[in-house]
Amino acid sequence: MLETAEVGARVGKKEYEEALPGLRVDLLNAQFEIRNADFPMMIVLSGDDFEGLGEVLNLLHAWMDPRYLDAHVFGVQKDEERGYPRFWRYWQVLPGCGQIGVYAGSFGLGLVADHLTGESDGHEAAQRLEHARRLEQTLVDEGTLLLKLWLHLPATERRKRLKRARKHPETVRLTDRELELYERFDEAEPLIEAFLRKTSTAAAPWILIESSHLRHRNLRVAREVRDALVRRLAEPPAEPPAVTPPDLRAPTAPGMLAALDLDVSLPRDEYRQRLDALQDRLWQLGLRCREQGISSAVVFEGSDAAGKGGVIRRMTQAMDVRDYRVLPVAAPTSEEIAHHYLWRFWRRLPRAGRMLICDRSWYGRVLVERVEGLATPSEWARGYEEINDFEEQLVEHGMPVVKFWLQIDPETQLERFRAREDTPYKKYKLTPEDHRNREKRDAYEVAVEEMVARTSTDLAPWHLVPANDKRHARIQVLETVCEALERVAG
Amino acid sequence: MLETAEVGARVGKKEYEEALPGLRVDLLNAQFEIRNADFPMMIVLSGDDFEGLGEVLNLLHAWMDPRYLDAHVFGVQKDEERGYPRFWRYWQVLPGCGQIGVYAGSFGLGLVADHLTGESDGHEAAQRLEHARRLEQTLVDEGTLLLKLWLHLPATERRKRLKRARKHPETVRLTDRELELYERFDEAEPLIEAFLRKTSTAAAPWILIESSHLRHRNLRVAREVRDALVRRLAEPPAEPPAVTPPDLRAPTAPGMLAALDLDVSLPRDEYRQRLDALQDRLWQLGLRCREQGISSAVVFEGSDAAGKGGVIRRMTQAMDVRDYRVLPVAAPTSEEIAHHYLWRFWRRLPRAGRMLICDRSWYGRVLVERVEGLATPSEWARGYEEINDFEEQLVEHGMPVVKFWLQIDPETQLERFRAREDTPYKKYKLTPEDHRNREKRDAYEVAVEEMVARTSTDLAPWHLVPANDKRHARIQVLETVCEALERVAG
C-alpha cells in the first residue's frame, strides 16, 4: 500500500501560490458552516513522517481558523492516562456536533512506535488495531465525518534525513525518540502495511499522501480537508431519529427471563447473617482494590421498583466513599446529545482503585431508547456490538464489568407501586409514566432477552437476579460482586 | 472559638434511635426536591478529627441517596493538580444547580496540614485563607447553599487517641500522615483559630460540632444538613436575572479610551520586518515555556471588527499547536449556565507549559452581560472583585495574564463592516445584531472604562491598543506578549 504513494509527485511554486488563496477561502467558509451542522468532523493525521506531521498540523492551524480547531497530539501515554483503558484518552477529546477535532499521531503511529520499542507485543498490537478499527466505525456510524490522512515518507528519503541528522544534529527537528524510531523503521513496514490495510475500511479509508515534496504535500492535505468538508456539507442533513414503532414481536420461544425462578426467597435471619458477612468481605475487597489500583464497573438494570436502589445502598454501606461513585443515568444533557452516546460513559470511567456503580447504564441504548423509539433501528441494532467492544476494552484493562438484571413479576411490581403510595419518601411517588412503562412490559421483555443474549459475553456476563424477594436479590448481588473482585484483587 | 464546642454534649441511645428515622425521611425528601431547584448545595466537611471526617462522610452517604451526592476528598495535591493554581481542583468539581457536592477535608484542613509539615509558609497560608474566603463568598453570591461543618475533637480526646494508637496500632484507622499531624496539632491551634475566625463570614459561617461523642456528632450533622436544605427549599425561588436597563450614564469625564491616540500607524515595510522578528522571538519563547512548564493566559477584548482574530492568527502562526489553545467565548452551554460563571474558565485553564488565548473572556460578565442586561446589577457589580481574585490566583501560580483591549473609532468600524460585504469569507457576513451593537457604543464605552479602571491591577494590567491601524496593533500586541513571557521564562 505504501508503495502506491511513492510516485515522486511535485507541485510547482506558481501552481502552489495560485491555488492556495482560493483553498483558504473554501476552508474557512466550510469551517464556518460546520459550526451549525449536525455532525462533527474528525481529522486523523498520522504517518511515518514525524517532521511532516508537526508541519502539517501547524499549517492547518494557519490556513483555517485556529479558534475552531481542537487538535490533540497523542504521544507516549501519560501517567494519568495509564490508569484508564488505552482508548480512554481518545474518547475524552471527541468533538461534538459542529466541531472539528484533530487527532495527531493517533492510534496508528503509537501502535507502530510501541511495537518498535518493545513496549507492546504482537497480541497487544492486534488488539489495539482492532479497537482503532471499531472506534472509527462507531464514529462514522454515529455521523462523524472522519478523514484519515497518512503522510508517507519513502524509505530513501527517510535514510537521507537520518544521515543529515547524524551529520548536522542542530538542523534537525526530531526528538531522540523519533530518531530512534527512524533508525528501525524498516522493520516496521510490515506492521504499518497491516495497520493501513486493516483500518482502511469502506467507512474510513486511509488517504496516503507522499510527503517528500512539501508543496505537493501541503496542497494535497488542504484539498482533502476541503473536499471532504464541502462534500458532506452539501449532503442533505441527516434525518432526525425516526420514532417508528420498533420491531418488537412477542417472544417466539420462552427465554431466559421466563425460565427464571422468581419464587426463591431467603428467611430474615439467614439474610441478616449473610449480609453482615458479605458486607465485611466487600469492605476488605474495597481496601484491597484501592491499594492495588484495581477499578471496576458494576451495572444495574431492571424494571421500575425492581429494587436497584436498595441493592446499591447495601453495597455503598460497605464501602468507603472514596472508593466508589454511583452514576444515576437519566436523560442526557445537550452536550452529551451532541456526542457519541458512549462518550458520557467513557468520560466517567473510574480512576485506578475505584468502582463505578451504574444505576441504569449504556444499555439504555438497547432498552429504553429502543422500546420508546428514541434510537433508530439501525442505531440500537449496532449498539450490541459497540457495547461489547466497550466492555471488552474495560476488561482488557483489568477492570471487571459486573452486570445485573433484576427481574420481578408484574404482580410484585404493582404491589410495590401501591405500597409506595403510603411511603413518606417523595422520590417514590408515582408518575403517570410509571404506569405507562408497565404497559410496555412485553416490549421491554423482548428487548431485555435480546440484550442478554447478545451482550452476555464470557468477559462480562449478565447475572439475572430473581428480585421478587429483596433479601434474596441483595445477597445474590453482593456475593457476585465479591466473587468478581476476588478474581482480580489477589 | 474551638473552646465553644467543648461542652461535652451527649445524646442518649434512645433519643438517637427515635430521632434518626424521621431525619432520614426529611433528608431524602429534601435531596429529592433539590434536584429541580435553581441552586446547588455545597457541604464543606472539615475539622481536626480525621477519623470523624471519614465516618461522617460515609454516614451521609448511608442516610442520604448516594446516587445524588457528589463527594470529593481533598488530601495531598496530586502531581497533575500541581500544574494548576491551587484552587483549580476545587473548581473542577463544583456542583451545578440541583446538585449536592461535598468537599471533604477541603481548604481548611489542607492549609493546617501543609503548615504543620512545613510545606507552606505563613505568607502562603495567608494567601490560601484569603482565597478560601473569597471562593466561599463568590459561591454564596451566585446562589450556592453553602454549609460548612467543622468537626472538633478536644485536645484531651486527641491525646487519648494518640496514646491508644501507639499502644494498639492495629485498632486505629489513621494513616501515618494523620498520626504525624495529630502529634503536632497543639501547635496548630492558633492557625486553626485564625482560619475559622477569618472564614466565618455572614454568608458562610462555620458550624462547630464537638465530635467526641458519636451519637451527638452524627445527629448534629444530620440536623444541620436537613435544616439548611429544608430552610432554603422553602424560600421563594430566586428571581430570574432582571433585564433592567443597567446604570450606564454617559462618561462624566474623558476616560482612558478617549485619551488613546488612534492615529498611530506603521508603514508596511517596518511592519513586515518587526513582525518577522517578533514571531521568531515568540517561537523561541513558546519552546522555553514548554520546557519550563510555564503556562499563560492571553485575553483579547474589543468591539466587533477591532481585529482580534487577525492578531490571534499572527500569534498562533508563530507557535506550535501543542503549545497553545484558542478559546472562542460565545454563549454558555446549559451545563455552564448551571454553574458559577467563572467555572467554564477554571475548567479550561491550560496545563503546565501551554498558553490559553481567549477570544473574548470572563470579562463578558462586566461587558456584554452588563450592557445587554444579561446579568443583574449586583451580579456584574461584584464581577470586578471576583475577576481580580481569579487572575490573582493565576499570577500567584506563576501564570502571566496578559490582557488587551483593541480600540477602533466608529468610522473605522463602519468602514470595516462595509468592506466585509465584499469579502469571500462567510464568517464576516454581517448580521443585524452587529449593527445593533454599534448603536450601543456609548453604553459599551462606559462599561469598558469601568472595567479597565477596576481590573487593571499591577499583577494583570490592561493593555489598551489603538487598532485603527491593524499593523500597529499587531506589533504592539506581539511585543507585549513577548515581554510578559520573557519576564517569567528566564
List the helices and strands and how they pair.
Two copies of one chain form a homodimer.
Chain A (H helix, E strand, L loop, with lengths): L12 H22 L6 E7 L2 H14 L6 E4 L5 H4 L5 H5 L7 E5 L1 H11 L5 H20 L3 E8 L2 H13 L8 H8 L1 H15 L6 E5 L3 H21 L21 H4 L8 H25 L3 E7 L5 H9 L7 E5 L5 H4 L5 H5 L7 E5 L8 H4 L5 H20 L4 E7 L2 H11 L11 H8 L1 H15 L6 E5 L3 H19 L2
Parallel strand pairs in A: 1-3, 1-4, 2-3, 4-5, 6-8, 6-9, 7-8, 9-10
Provide structural commentary.
Two copies of one chain form a homodimer. With 490 residues, the first copy, chain A, is α/β, with parallel strands linked by helices. Chain A folds into two domains: 2-234, P-loop containing nucleotide triphosphate hydrolases (Rossmann fold), CATH 3.40.50.300; 256-488, P-loop containing nucleotide triphosphate hydrolases (Rossmann fold, 3-Layer(aba) Sandwich), CATH 3.40.50.300. Helix content of chain A is 52%, strand content 12%. Chain A contains 21 helices and ten strands. In chain A, the strands form two sheets. Chain A has a five-stranded parallel sheet, sandwiched between helices. In chain A, strands 7-8-6-9-10 form a five-stranded parallel sheet. In chain A, helix 6 (122-141) runs antiparallel to helix 17 (377-396). Chain A is elongated. The model of chain A has no long low-confidence stretch (mean pLDDT 89). At the A-B interface, helix 1, helix 2, helix 13 and strand 7 of A face helix 1, helix 2, helix 13 and strand 7 of B.
